[in-house]
Design brief:
Elements: E1 3-6, E2 21-24, E3 27-30, E4 36-37, E5 42-43, H1 47-64, E6 74-79, H2 85-95, E7 102-107
Parallel strand pairs: 6-7
Antiparallel strand pairs: 1-2, 2-3, 4-5
């Protein structure tokens, strides 16, 4: 199998034993991104800022792999509360203005780093 680790300092380092992304057999698999500011190493404050930062982090990883948001075919959005869905969805829509990827979005009990 053709497998290559993709990593950039423009996105936060993994918070566990995983890679930011793996390119394998022509596909790119990007790990979930939190709203962590890579320069500060801390979670930014507020749902809107966290959504923007998480997408910025994803964009940095895609860029490192020579791709962009237009290359994404499947996404999963995890929310701490479905009450934040409309706000996060509006931010997400700005990154995928045309031909958005297939997507699942749901609330979870707990996310890493709160």
């Amino acid at each position: 199998m053709d497998k290559k680790v993709i990593a950039t300092k423009k996105a936060p380092a993994a918070v566990g034993p995983y890679s930011q992304a793996i390119r394998a057999n022509g596909f790119l698999f990007v790990s979930g991104q939190l709203g962590i500011d890579p320069a500060a190493g801390k979670l930014v404050e507020g749902v809107e800022a966290q959504a923007e930062q998480a997408l910025d982090n994803m964009g940095a990883i895609l860029s490192e792999a020579g791709m962009g948001f237009g290359s994404v075919v499947k996404a999963t959005v995890l929310l701490a509360s479905m009450d934040d869905f409309a706000l996060v969805n509006a931010i997400y829509a700005k990154r995928f203005p045309e031909n958005p990827p297939a997507r699942a979005a749901f609330a979870v009990v707990k996310l890493p780093l709160g």
